[in-house]
Each structure stands twice: as structure tokens, then as C-alpha cells.
Design brief:
The structure is a homodimer. Chain A is α+β, with helices and mostly antiparallel strands. Chain A has 8 helices and 8 strands, in the order H-H-H-E-E-H-H-H-E-E-H-E-E-E-H-E. In chain A, the strands form 2 sheets. A 6-stranded antiparallel beta sheet of chain A has the order 3-8-4-5-6-7. In chain A, helix 1 packs across helix 2 and helix 2 packs across helix 3. Chain B binds a DNA duplex (30 and 30 nucleotides) through helix 3.
DNA sequence: GCATATATTTAAATTAGTTTAAAAATAAAG
DNA sequence: CTTTATTTTTAAACTAATTTAAATATATGC
């Protein structure tokens, strides 16, 4: 990686921008960044201008922000670190999956490269974090997986839960209550046209109705 | 603990002041803090005045700084976190003991209390870190140990190395080269009046001469 | 195509922490 | 006890990041 030193704040901006651009065909608006960072639009404008002058991203007035290759490289390393720490917190320390993000948020700033390399080995080079999100390798490459949201499944389809899109505590705790975790088997018993909700069988044991919002927030890998 | 939020910088100051006061009968001078923090005396004066107004320490113009009970409590927690992370880095990740401090420096700022509690359990509630320094428990209590510096031993005295006072990379690497680590057995073969150096037998295998400075930087527990 | 609403940027002020240089206090030495 | 050296504090200025309010673009409705 480059020998550019980022402030904690710049790191947080990069990660936020990366996440937004991922869902937004490559571009992030000032307001989206501001609400994601819990700050004002004015602060964002100021910061992205400074970051653009440091060549961390591309910025055009009133047109939003795009990460360039440098910004992507940094953001990817941040995501890598954060997700490795999430695996550590969950698998080694036994922390519940609804509390991982807050703790990993701080840990992602640890920038001793040797720590991260050794952590990865210690964890057995995991490819996915406890929420099912892919962990980029040291070169920044993600392991891709064909997945779809539960929303796209049809009646009688069977699948395995591979990731959660929404990672709010409340959603994760709700999934716990339903007995759903990464790896759970599910089957669509019924599609309810009325509100696009679905009746789902979980692990061949419990049946439950999921709203369309919930279905969208669960990523699955279709089986048969 | 209190619901006071400290900045990263305030945390660093507290830890530095704690370490200085430990060796300095309870008080830390502006200059000592400045050199320990690699900053200017003016910055220190400014900072300790602000910290004093936040009741984190006692400050009297031209008289230096003393930690009060609040400051001690915070500093102790920081030291607890830092030393637990050092154990993790060394025992779990296999990091060499001359590289622990830099990495733990960053990790000590992690302030998710649950992470620290679980980390402690994961590590088996160690009482000492890889440099032999005591790890305070959650209540801030240190496990004391009777130890002395190798400097104070006399001819024929036998002892076990329990801690290193100087934790610079170069000193730790030097100890590695001598085959000395925490737990090593040593015996004083000869006291050299001339310069207060000593000839030492290490683990009943190798003999080597240590300067008085080296002897002062090694803490031991006397055996017989 | 204009009026309005929304999004974004600029400007000015604020805070935490820093620096350098000058001023003041303390300590040391004759 | 006075001079000098050292330490510490104050003052003024600077940087990164923020806020609020005002100004300016862009987008939308009719």
C-alpha cells in the first residue's frame, strides 16, 4: 500500500463512501455521506474537497463523489480489517452478532500490518465474516458467491442463508429469535401476493411469515 | 467507571502521566510529560490545565501534575487494556515481544467494555503481560510480586527473570540474542567492582557479562 | 419555462490540539 | 544574594474537523 497516512476521520469517510457507492452504481451524494456519517452536509463537502486534493477520490461539485483506485484500495483494507476483527470477536471471544459492528468499528483503525496478517492466519483465513460478508484478501480481492435475496425466491424454492444485508441490532436480534443464523436452511412455503410477504419454513422445523422488507434483508444461496 | 468520555489524546496523556508518576514519587513534570509524549512543553501545560479543569488530575503551576483518583482509575483501565492486548498479540498471534508495544498502543484505546471482559476470559485472566508487567483486574487492582533488579543481586545469588523494565526494541532483541526471556534462570557468577557489571550464567548454559545498565533493566525474583 | 423545493456549497465561527517565540518563575552557582 | 541557566507558562498563530446560516445549484411540478 501507499505510504499515505490517513486520519481516523478520513478512514471513516472512505469506508462510508465505499459502502454507499457499492449500492449506488459508483457514486455517493453529499447528503448520503452526511447521513451515514451522522454529520452535516457542509462538513462532508469540506472533507471530500480535501480528500480529493489528496487524490483519494474524485469529486465534482454538485455531482457527488466517486472513489478512485487509491481510495478503493484503502477502503478495501479497512473493510478487510473490520471483518477479520468481527470474526475474531464472534468466533474467539463469543460476542453476539448484533454487537459486532460497534466494536469492530474501532478495531478497523488498527494499522499495524503485521497484526492483521497474523490475525488472519490465527483465524484460519476466513472468507466471510459473521454476517456473511466477504473478507477481501491482502490484495483486496473479494471472494464472490452467487447469492440472491430471499425476496427473489418462489414457492417451493429451498435455500441456505448466507448473509444479512441489514445489520442493525434489532434485525439481528429478531433473526436470533426466529432461530435464523448464517447457514440456516429455509424453504418458501407460500408467497402472499397481497403485500409480497412470504411464509417460510426454517430448518424444516418452524414456519413463520416474513415481510417483504425482511426478505430483502436476507441473502440466500438457492439449493436445488 | 464514570461516564466521562476521554479523547484519544487525553487517554495518551493519562497513561504517560501514570507511568511517569510511578517512577517519580507521585508527580510528573511538564518537561517529562512532553518528552514522553513527543510534544512541546507548551502543549503539555495547555493540556494538563484543561484536564485539571475536567477533574482528571491535580495541577499546580510550576509544581507539576499528580493524578487524582479519577485519573488513576482511567489510567489503570488503559494499562489493563493495553497489557491484555499485549498478551493476545504475543500468545495468540505469535508476535515477537519487541513489537508488542507499538501495536498495543493503538489497541489500548478500544473502549467496548464487553470486548475487554471477554478478551480477558479468552486469555485465561493472565496476571502478567509478556514483558512481565502486572495486569490490573477489572477493579484496577494489581497483583503485586516481590522482585528486585538484577543490579541488586550479589555473587552466587540465583534468580528467575520476571520482567523487563526497559522495553525498547533494541533491548528486547538483545535479550533474545542472549537467550533471555521471562522465566529464564540466572546466577551471578562474578561482580565486577570496576564498572558494576556482572558475569551472569543463563539457564545453567551460557555465561555473559551484563553492564550495570542492563542489570538495572532486568527485574528478577530471587530464588534461594 | 418559471416558481418552488431540495441538495449542495461557501463563509464565518468554534473546538481540540498543536507550534514557535516571548515572558515569567524556579533552581543553581558563585 | 545576585546572576545565570533551566523549566514552565502565556500568547498568538495554525490545522483538522466541525457547526450554523446564507448563498447558490440543481431538480421538479405545473
Amino acid at each position: 500500500m501507499q505510504d499515505i497516512q490517513l486520519s481516523l476521520t478520513e478512514e471513516d469517510y472512505l469506508k462510508a463512501i465505499f459502502n454507499i457507492t457499492e449500492k449506488n452504481r459508483g457514486t455517493a451524494s453529499t447528503n448520503d455521506i452526511a447521513s451515514s456519517m451522522q454529520t452535516s452536509a457542509a462538513a462532508v463537502t469540506d472533507m471530500v474537497q480535501r480528500m480529493a486534493s489528496r487524490k483519494l477520490l474524485d469529486y465534482e461539485k454538485y455531482k457527488g463523489v466517486k472513489l478512485n483506485s487509491v481510495g478503493i484500495a484503502f477502503a478495501t483494507q479497512l473493510i478487510r480489517k473490520e471483518r477479520l476483527w468481527k470474526v475474531f470477536l464472534h468466533q474467539k471471544l463469543g460476542m453476539d452478532w448484533d454487537k459486532l459492528n460497534d466494536a469492530a468499528e474501532q478495531l478497523k483503525h488498527i494499522n499495524t500490518i503485521e497484526v492483521i496478517r497474523k490475525l488472519e492466519l490465527f483465524l484460519g483465513s476466513p472468507k466471510y465474516d459473521p454476517h456473511g460478508e466477504p473478507i477481501p484478501n491482502a490484495d483486496g480481492r473479494f471472494t464472490l458467491r452467487n447469492q440472491t435475496s430471499l425476496f427473489n425466491l418462489r414457492k417451493t424454492d429451498r435455500a441456505k442463508v448466507v448473509a444479512v444485508r441489514n445489520q442493525s441490532s434489532s434485525f439481528l436480534q429478531f433473526l436470533d429469535d426466529c432461530g435464523i443464523s448464517i447457514g440456516s436452511q429455509i424453504e418458501v412455503l407460500q408467497e402472499i401476493d397481497f403485500d409480497l410477504s412470504k411464509r417460510i419454513m426454517i430448518n424444516d422445523q418452524t414456519s413463520i411469515v416474513f415481510s417483504s422488507k425482511i426478505c430483502q434483508d436476507l441473502y440466500v444461496k438457492q439449493l436445488n
